Amino acid sequence: MQTINDDVVHKIVLSYLLHNCFKETLESFVTCSGMKQPADYLEDMEKRKQGNTLKAIELTEQLAHDLLEKNQDLHFDLLSLHFVELVSAKKCTEALEFAQTKLTPFGKVQKYVEKLEDFMALLAYEEPEKSPMFHLLSLEYKQHVAESLNRAILAHANLPSYSAMERLIQQITVVTQFLNQEFGKDSPFSLKDFLKS
Fold first, then answer.
1. Which of 46, 147, 156, 180 could staple 64 via S-S, CB 3.0–4.6 A?
2. Residues 6+ apart with CB under 8 A from 43
3. How far is CA 38 from CA 15, 65, 109, in A?
């Protein structure tokens, strides 16, 4: 069996930490491993980490001025996320005004109509987190939008939209599935078993 050079493993871990904006962990890892810290990524990482949706839109326009114009789905997701934040903060009048000015143009496109109806339905509930559309208020939804934005910014900058570690796991998964189909039995390598050991 061929051994993997520690530098390769370090680069894979570094790629993952950079990609997912784990700044403190990245700094500790660089210190412990003796690697050189990639200075040019830190500023972009800080910008990508900020949680304010409107600020994220503004920074995206600065980093990649035409990205949201070209990616209307992402633009809609970011705007609707801000709408959800307003509803969650019980700023319903502000949310409605925001929807009228920023989300109304999306109502002319059929694929956004149902989504808009779901978002607007949140206004009908005193406790939107108990509504049938509660998932729109979830941390998972916010993370999904943030990950989509992160991947789009990275791709726009001609950087991989997935970290090397994620690509390796995807490759292992595909190869394992292929081996299972091809040979009709479990492959000799199981990622789940490996991670448990």
1. 156
2. none
3. 10, 24, 42
